[in-house]
Fold each of these.
Amino acid sequence: MKAVILNDSGGTEIFSLREIPVPRPKSKEVLVQVHAIGINPVDVKTRKGGALYNSLKEQKPIILGWDISGIVQSVGNEVKGFKAGDAVFGMVNFPGHGKAYAEYVAAPEDHLAMKPGTISHGEAAAASLAALTAWQVLVQEINIQPGQHLLMHAAAGGVGHYAVQIARHLGARITGTASASNASFLKELGVNDHIDYTQQDFEEEVQDIEVVFDPISGETTKKSLEVLKPGGILISIVGGVKDDHHAIIEEKKALAKNYLVHSSGADMAQIAALLMDGIVKTHISHQFSFEQFAEAHQQIETGKTRGKIIVNVF
């Protein structure tokens, strides 16, 4: 099979396309013929030597990627929930060695869900890490309630555009930050109030926010804590909550923490139901071929991607 190998950390020129053996599924794994792959910022950070690179660098060959959608080819002898021919999707082995940049992936059964028949493999692959992050943060970490006011940063991005739709479904009021070019997109997603971060300082536009979803970090985290109401909640998915924020967190009596998504087939099944019913939809802004992983990474690095990008395999 073809696979994209990461030979070292660095720029996109270090990728190499190779033929390697098709993996054999273990007893609780399924072998998936991959039809589409989702690309995420963590892929880029890991390729550059950050994020998960140190935990993967001794596991040769390093094959990046975690988000897949495809068709089950065979199953391990203890697999109960899937059979050959099933269309499945999910985020595989995160945080760990997903090995998704390949034509075939051996994935744990409990990291996958059945792909809804109403969406494409591309839409399903895209709705893995990003949608799973949004679900786990909003439902499991925050337990967001109807009427709560959510400040969603980068609301037009990969995680953001799923989070807005999920929060809208759960009855939250949503203020989203994004550039002016994304204003109509945010309205379609369900954002109540848009803040153009290129022209407006969000901390001057909102106060007493109950919930902040932070995929940016840095000054954005600090300013978000300042607009949080007493007893409010801030969750950062990029390590934005630092020790030097302790004083304001104590003053606000806030719940502020960092969160890292984890693979879960059960959670993917919840997302699958939302996708099936059209409650959540994937927006794909760019598509690439299997030979264009470098270009896909370069697009993510612009920091301007609306929704998601995917790589088509079959």
Note: The chain has a mean pLDDT of 97.
Amino acid sequence: MKSLKSVLGLIFILALANPLCSEASSEKNPLAPVKTDNPRATMRSFYTAMESYHQGLEENDPQLEAKITDAIRCLDTSTLAALTRSTEAVDAAIYLKEVLDRVIVLNYSLIPDDSEQDFWRLKDTEISTRRITEGDRSGEHLITSATVERAGEFFKKVEDLPYLKGAGQGAGYKEPLLQRMLPTWSTDTFAEIAYWQWIGLFFSLLLGLVVRLFARLIGNLIHAFTKKTATQWDDILIESQIGPVSLLVASLIWLSALQILKFEGFVMTVLSGMTQIVLVSSMIWVAYRLADVLAQYLKDVASRTENTLDDQIVKLISRTLKIFIVIMGVMLGAQNLGIDVFSLLAGLGIGGLAIALAAKDSLSNFFGSIMIMVDRPFQVGQWIKVGNIDGTVEDVGFRSTKIRTFYNSLVSIPNAEVANSDIDNMGLREYRRVKTTLGVAYDTPAEKMEAFLEGIKNIIKANPNTRKDYFHVVFNDFGPSSL
């Protein structure tokens, strides 16, 4: 009996010493990750989160409504377009919950809990999960991207079925107000697209073109106003942006229309892809034109300096910036189309190493051009000697320096070679050396020879274009027939 009392007393003391234990065990950690370790855990996490979301809708509880984010964590959304991914993922989660409650009462004991199982499909459906094998979610089991993309299609097939007894009551799905107001005939389909969607697509295209035209008119009005100002840079800036900005506005109209028209599946993928290509292209166009304006400004600044190499620096900056804009724009566009660009770049492996080795010379020439710009051993227009090449510098580019020789050919020397060579800049000479050898008869006496040398020195001193502090006039050799 004493032993039992001692044990109870010890338990009581431990409970007092750690009062947070009861709270921690009774209240779920809000930072706990969504369970996606196996197909059973994934389906349970998804269904539980969607039940909470539905309850939140009925009780107007924002915290419960936010549980839909947990459900989305159970979906493979990697193939959805980045710009519309969040909206499409929400729709897919709602559709899937509506489908499940109409076709099956989930029995979790029949869903495998094997974390090594690569693929699992819900009985008599095309709803499935797959184990992710790469990326930051590697090892998790997610509802497949194919299921996510076809969720709307599945819902259309079962939307007239009642909820099953023992299942949930859907996800609070309500047909959009626009669709409820449409006449019956407009819901019929042609080429798997409803008539009302065809009509909406036509008017959205028309609206985008009208908005683009309106944006151009506004741009032209602003441009007319800026022409009256004292500065010219506002004119150049506005004029450069009229075309690309008007296309950007139109593409945003078209992208918004796709969400309103509720296209799904393959049709949505194609239309969304085309719209995003236009959107990203217009963004690249905007940035490219801004780079032109910046280059023009830097060119004007460089033209005020005596150093002609500044003009080459401006060219280099302009070219680099434009290449950077195009590359980043293409990467952004690919990412928005669902292509994991960074994983693709990281996965190049040996191919990436081969590309890097192949680009070694190009990189060394690029850094050579930077060293030339920083060190400034010569300017465009100056006469230089690099190795056995002798001529006037015409251009300094990314890869090479172009020199016009005195027999009028154009020689391109890699910048890495120029940067590592001894450069003799003849254009920086303060004086040009003239060396002339004169022959005097052997029978000339020494006195006359000295007088002859003094006479030449006096000629040099009297000439206004010669250097007076450093010249040599000397007798230095016995030639075969003269002194």
Note: The beta strands are 119-121, 128-131, 141-143, 189-190, 193-194, 383-386, 389-396, 400-405, 410-414, 423-425.
Amino acid sequence: MEKENYEIWLEGVDRALYPRTVLPSGTEVLIVGGGITGITSAYLLSKAGKKPILLEKRKLGEYVTDCTTGFLSQIVDLAPDQLIKRFGLKNSKLILESHQKAIDDIEKIINLEKIDCEFERCSSFIYVNNKSEESALIKKADQYAQLGVNATYKKDNTLKFNEYGYIEIINQAKFNAIKYIFSLAKIAVENGAIIAEDTKVLNLTDKKDAVLVEVENVGIINAKKVLSATYIPFGKIGYLEHKYGMYRSYVIEYKIPSGSFTYGTYQDTLEPYHYFRIDKENDFDRLIIGGNDNLEIIKLDHEIGANIVRNYTKVLFGNSDFREVRHWSGLISEPSDGLACIGETKGGNIFYAFGFSGNGLTYSYIVGKMFLDILLGQNNLYSKIYSPDNKLSWWKKIF
């Protein structure tokens, strides 16, 4: 099998390392997980005067964040009709609003901190692969508009590869998530946060007034609050343990002729769906395309998964001038009800965040802001929607 290449976002990046030093025996806030969610939270906490400890068993961004395609999208993986059916019109509006606000606030952070991470506003396009899907797409555009999304159905030659209809959602974005989190980590440490890579958390024990964090080769750290930002739920959390499934998605990067297609992010309406982004480079354009998500338990050969994406690319674009640069795959954590689980269980001191589907980059900010608001005793408009206890009542209705 050809080896996968995960280095796409690291080219030209000066990667700082955070070796473990002597860790304190107690802290107000501890974060488990050094992906974009944990690092965003550490940054926001440090800017608010907190001094969190962040522990990552690998290197920052490894395993999940470095596999991303860098989409910042308001829409979630769950179709708008299913979103309304499961959570109601009011809550569905708030869900999509929370992701758009996350994009806006991420841009504010990038501008404030002068972070060079290739952030770019763009439109997001939802397209169909054949004429029979057009009527459903028109209906979907109306549903998104009903939910407050700036979505418009169109049928023209803008996409340059599709003769059928499409939805354009304006004011979305794309960026390099690794460059972004490396900058946030540096700022957080400058503000007093402690980051330790190659540091494995073994267990979390939630007591009445604190959480006992057992760390390999370190011992016990007492934390008043813990953020579990490990992509899948960490520790024994009862009914939440089996409310998600792990999928693997396959991604290929191509160099393509300049100006071949409209710059932006894209997805189709198939199940499993396909997605891609078109970026302008110096002497060429870049196509990053992925999909063919399958349950990780199937253990599909990764090269077979990549070949399916290659074949889809040929059918979609019919262009032989594409040069493959690399390919890789990444894990997607899919919640049973289509909505991430974010918050504390009743009476607990551990703040859980998992089940992000394909929206982990916007969820990272939603989590960080929600966690900060809890620590500061501030109201958060979106906390009830995503809370574990509230989701339990929805699961009973849905399933």
Note: The chain has a mean pLDDT of 91.
Amino acid sequence: MSKILNIVLVSVATLAIAACDSGTSTAKGSAAGTETAKAGAANASDWTTTVVQTPEGGFRMGNPDAKVKLVEFASFTCSHCRDFHDHGSAKLKSEFVKTGKVSYEYRPFMLNVYDFTAATLAMCEGPARFFFWSDQLYTAHEAWIEPFTKLTDAEIEPLKSLPPEQQVKGLATAGHLNDFAKTRGLPGARFDACMSDPKTFEALQARQNAAITQYNIQGTPTFVLNGQKLDGVTTWAQLEPKLREAL
């Protein structure tokens, strides 16, 4: 983790995330993660209330025995991922996941160090609140990203000498992500604890590497449908017919 963060912190002065559909990662590690308890009891009338963390490190909403299993690898800083959320998320959940026909798993994929801070925030309160934070990060995309784009080398320089997990916490605080979280109900102490947990960063790295190795992920969003990567599918308009065909 230290190597990745130091490389990024040495070079950033502004945040560039325009071409997120062609981003790559140099993260190293091995797959890790243990499935957690369900956020709520299974409810066959509304499967969107059933959310678990998977062994692969994603967060799955819906019927675990659904005929169609959709996995999205996505970056919270990616504008194309935001567009998919804006145009397809509600329909995906209401028409496909809620009924139990489709399960939907979101797996964070980091294109830059800012994604580490956002993914850590989304994961901070576990499965029960993951999709709440995911919605907040995409709905208020510009609001939380803009402060990071204004950081200078002078503001970033002091972070380089810190341990890796403190670098991320320091960067998150410098970019006012703590204020973003606080106004949405996350206490400062909980934010600090989540941002400072080295196990989170190690797990994110390991899962990133596993995704690249298994699916050759080149950018975001990338969708995997019933185990098969859907090349060239990045929008809801392209994905919806694939879901209906699979059903």
Note: Strands lie at 51-53, 59-61, 68-74, 102-108, 222-225, 228-229.
